[in-house]
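[step 3/7] fold_predict: job queued, chain A
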Amino acid sequence: MKSNGLEVFLEKVRAGKMPLGAAITFTDPAVTELSCASGFDFLWFDGEHGEFGRETAMLHLMAVKGTGVASLYRVPNCDHTEIKRIIDFAPAGVIIPMVLTAEDAARAVDACRYPIHGGSRGFGPRRGLDYGAGDAAEYFEKSAHEPLVMIQLEHIEAARNLDAILEVPGIDAVIVGPFDFTMSMKKPGQFRDPEVMAILDECCRKIKAKGILLGCYTECDFDVWRKRGVQFMAIKNDTNAMMLGYHAMIEKARA
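[step 4/7] structure written:
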């Protein structure tokens, strides 16, 4: 959909560019408008750790319209109801956290697709059909592959089950969450630990070999992730960016 920036996002990925994004947790949609204006290629609205209610989520998704910035929304968990609460607002992608098994991945895909495409999504398209003004035939055609089903690999158990997870039809992207991943290995923040490096290297290789989009959230080691073949990266969240900006200005003024 043009309103959610998906086409622009995929064009950049196919052209070998590296879309960069930010995670949004503040409830004020002005933060989304500001972030779009700053030059990001996509925004990741954090319904897992953020404070979004359903109305707030819709306002943020509306704020990206016309900017060319892709809107991705992370639901709290792999739950049909949680996905249903967001999907009719027509995000470019739905991010499902803590997918640990092939069964989890299958539930995620099922919740994101209509029965005509093998899923169990309920019909209530709202924004996706321009509130009824859009072309229904075109909408149903696009709904076979929109929104993107984006599962997160952020636990050592998911790495152990990755071969089976990647066999699930309909997964469009896997986003690696290294922070939680190192926590699950009892090595919090040790991104350059040899064991962590080896496992993540192998996971990324397998994902790429399946032809599935590979993304990550990282605020460091950009060179490492590029070598792993990631195709898009979320590189900062709003709260952290604000804190760093304030610190930098305070230090500059005091100097």
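[step 5/7] annotate
The chain has a mean pLDDT of 96.
Residues 173 and 212 are 5 Å apart (CA to CA).
exit 0
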